[in-house]
Amino acid sequence: MKAVRGTRDLLPPETALWNRIEATARDVFARYNFGEIRTPVFEDTGLFARGVGEETDIVSKEMYTWEDRARAQSEKTQSLTLRPENTAGVVRAYIEHGLGESGLLQKLYYIGPQFRRERPQKGRYRQFSQIGAEVIGPPSAGSESPLRDAEVLEMLSTLLDELGIKGWILHLNSVGSSADRARYNDALRAALVPVVGQMCVDCQRRAETNPLRVLDCKVPTDQPFIETLPVIADSLDEESKKHYAAVTAALDAAGVPYTRNHRLVRGLDYYTRTTFEFTHGGLGAQNALLGGGRYDGLSEMLGGPRAPGIGFAMGEDRLVLTLLAQQEGESVVTKADAYIAPLGDKEKADELVKLNAAALGLARELRHQGLWIELGEGSFRLKKSFDAADKTARQIVILGEDELQSGILTVKNFSTGVQSKVPRGELAVFLSIPANE
Ligand code: ATP
Ligand code: MG
After folding, report:
1. Distance, CA 125 to ligand 1 centroid (Å)?
2. C-alpha–C-alpha distance, residues 124 and 285, integer Å
C-alpha cells in the first residue's frame, strides 16, 4: 500500500525542521498577542461555497466533498467538505461564538492541514499545511484601520526573518472597495475589447465573466497585452487611496520593504483594499510563500455581523522547501548526546537482564536531566554497539559489570576519539559539554 497521490509522510530528521518552524511561528504570534484557534478539519460544504466563492478554482474543482449519510431519523444527510483553507472556518467560529460581542479585536492564528484536489508537483500537494492568522472585529475596535494591515505585514517580515528565509519579496496592492472594483472591471472590459481576440481562450472567457482574472494569466504570449491594460490604482476612490497610503507610510516607518504589484488582485467580491503575497525565487513555478489581504465583507457574507478583517495563509510545505534548499550542504542530522551501551556476556542471561535494567535506570536519570539519550542492548557485541552509537549519538557510554560495581563509566567521544572515565554523579554534566567535541 502507498500513501495517496498528492499526500506524503513526513519523516525525521525533516520533521525537526517542521517543528522548529511551528515553534518559531507560535513564539512570534505570542509576541504580537495572537491566540491560537483550532477549527474542525471538515465543515458544511456551504461554508466554502459562500466563504471562498463558487467561482474560484478551489470551490469549482479542488474540494474533497462527500454526502454524509444520516445515521438516525433525527439526522439529515449533509454535504461535507475537507477544508481547503482556514479563513472561512475562523470567521464561522467568530460568528458562532459571538466573539465580536467583546468589542475587542480578535487576533487568532492557526496551524494545520488543508486539502485541495490539485495536480501534485513540487510545492503543490493535495494535503498541505498552512500557518495563518486573522485580525477581525467590530469597526469600533479599529479593525478597519490601515495600522492593522501594516502590523500584520510587519509581523510577517519578522516571522520570515526569524525563520531564516532569505530573499523574500513582499508584493503589495490595493483592490479598493467593491465600487472601485466595479469601475475597474468596466475599464478593463473596455480595454480588452480590441486585444482579447489575440489572447488565450481562458482570457477570452474571463474578459466576459470576470475581467479581473485576466491579470492572473500566466500564458507568455498574453503578457505583452496585459502590460498595456489600465491599473487598478487609477480606479481607487479617495478613501481607498488614503487607506493604501497609510499602510505604506507605516511600512516605510518600520523599514519593511515592499514592491507595488498592480496585477495582484483577488477575484472575490468581499475582498477589499490591501492584498499581498510574499514570494521566494527558490521555489520555481510555485513561488508564493503566502498570500493574504483584507476581507471587510466576509462576515456578512456568512450571515454574521459587520466585522472587517485582514489575514494571511502561509504554505508550510513551501517554507520547508525553501529552508532545505538554503541549507543544502549543511548537515541537518541531529544526534543524541549519548548512546548507552550495556555490555554483558551473551551466555549469561541473568546478567544481561540485570545490565539492561541498570542501563534503563541510567538512561532515565540522564533523560530527566535534559539529555538526549539512545539506549542500546546488552546482547550486542562491542563492535555492533559502537557502530550503532556512532550513527545515532555524539558519545558512547559503556556500562558493563565493572562499571556497575565501581560507579565509574567509560565514555568515548566520536568526533575527538578521546576516551574518559567519568563518575556517575558527574556524567550528565560531562556528556552535555559541547567542548567535549
Ligand atoms: P497558488 O497560486 O500557489 O496556487 P493559491 O492562491 O492557491 O496559491 P492561497 O489559497 O492563497 O494560495 O494559499 C496560501 C498559501 O498556501 C500559498 O501561498 C501557498 O504557499 C500555500 N498553498 C496553496 N495551495 C497549496 C498546495 N496545494 N500545496 C502546498 N501549498 C499550497
Ligand atoms: Mg492554488
Report:
1. 9
2. 10
Interval 221-236 mean pLDDT: 95
Other CB atoms within a 10 A radius of the CB of residue 309 amount to 26
Average pLDDT, integer, range 225-235: 95
Among residues 359, 338, 361, the alpha carbon closest in space to that of 431 is found at 338
- Cα torsion through 101, 102, 104, 108, rounded to 10: -80
Over residues 79-105, the mean pLDDT reads 97
With b meaning 16 or more CB within 10 Å and e meaning fewer, what string describes 11-22?
Answer: eeeeeebbeebe
pLDDT value at position 267? 62
Over residues 239-270, the pLDDT tens digits come to 999 999 999 999 999 999 999 999 998 767 77
Q: How far is the CA of 129 from the centre of ligand 2 (A)?
A: 13
d(CA 183, CA 267): 14
Dump pLDDT digits (tens) for 395-415: 999 999 999 999 999 999 999
% of the chain residues with pLDDT over 90: 86
Q: For residue 288, how far is its CA from the centre of ligand 2 (angstroms)?
A: 10
Pocket probe for ligand 1: among 126, 128, 169, the residue whose CB has the most ligand atoms within 8 Å is 128
pTM: 0.91
CA nearest to 90, candidates 319, 262, 292, 358? 292
Point out the ligand nearest to the CA of residue 277: 1
Among 164, 129, 124, CA closest to 326: 164
Question: What is the Cβ-side half-sphere exposure of residue 305, based on CA atoms within 13 angstroms?
Answer: 17
Residue 175 near residue 272, CB atoms below 8 Å: yes
Owner of C-alpha cell 502590460: 227
Residues with CB under 6 A from ligand 1: 85, 116, 118, 123-125, 128, 130, 286, 288-291, 313, 315, 317-318
CA-314 nearest atom, ligand 1: 15
d(CA 144, CA 139): 6
Distance CA 174, CA 272 (A): 7
The residues, any chain, with a CB within 8 Å of residue 211's CB and separated by 6 or more, are 185, 188, 189, 192
